[in-house]
Amino acid sequence: MPLLQFNKGLTQWLATGASLPYTDALPVFFVGHQDFSRTPHITPFTSNLRAMGGAVKPAAILVISAHWLTMGDTYVNMNPQFKTVEYPVTGSPDAARLVMNAVDAKEESERELDHGAWSVLRHLSPDAAVPVLELSIDMEKPLDYHYNIARQLSSLRKRGVLIVGSGNVVHNLELSALKVWSRKPYEWAAEFDAWVKGRIIDRDISSLFQYYRLGKIADYAVPTMDHYIPMLYCLALCEKNEEIVFTYEEVIKGMSFRCFRIGAATMSESKA
């Protein structure tokens, strides 16, 4: 009987992600993703990502990507190793167990990293030395469900886990494709991006969850919610009085590549 009790206790201990350290709260990153080429391009945008990632030393990175969408359930990677050609990297089953303990997530052990993850990770952590995992977005659930999921993930920040939301504030590929000869942003794209920035500065997060009230501008900027929701996850993780720093701002055609950091890091940019 004592041996059975010991084994039960060991199982519970391992399920808590015991190999992950207890730390001060790590920051949260939101990044507007781009650069899907096989060879990473060094641009002002990707240089910003490298500066963001270079300022922190996480034990694991959890990505919430616009390109892992599920219907009816939330999943987390349990992969010990990813074979993704663009970014082969070790997985983090320990961090995945923490996620599963925090939220009602199911295990997924076969899926490789999507381009919303590897396109930013290869700049945030270019040596691929930090273990990675992903959390899917259940598109059947309402926005308040995603807010609650994010709040339940907040404890991971003190276990050395860097949480990264990868999406776009404005994401309209169809209308962007019509601007063949110009990178100039549509007026509605620039206006919606500026509106989001203003709401973040004012800490008016509830309005961001009701973005559709802007009407036609919102319809153009967020024709589908998949790229918008990762930003909401990040903002839901923001604690009272935490700083929010915009690390990059650019709107091209019908796409916003705004990036920001929540929480302290050794970086010097203008604060929101």
Number of domains: 1
CATH topology: Protocatechuate 4,5-dioxygenase, Chain B
Low-confidence stretches: 1-16, 267-271
CATH architecture tag: 3-Layer(aba) Sandwich
Radius of gyration: 19 Å
- CATH H level: which superfamily? LigB-like
State the end-to-end CA separation: 57 Å
Please state the average pLDDT score: 90
Largest sheet: 6 strands, mixed
* SSE string, helices as H and strands as E: HEHEEEEHEHEHEHHHHHEEEE
The first-level CATH class name: Alpha Beta
Structural class: alpha/beta
What is the number of helices?
10
Number of strands: 12
Strand content: 15-25%
The largest sheet has its strands arranged as 7-2-8-1-12-9
Q: What percent of residues adopt helix (DSSP H or I)?
A: 25-40%
- Described by the principal axes of the CA atoms, the overall outline is globular
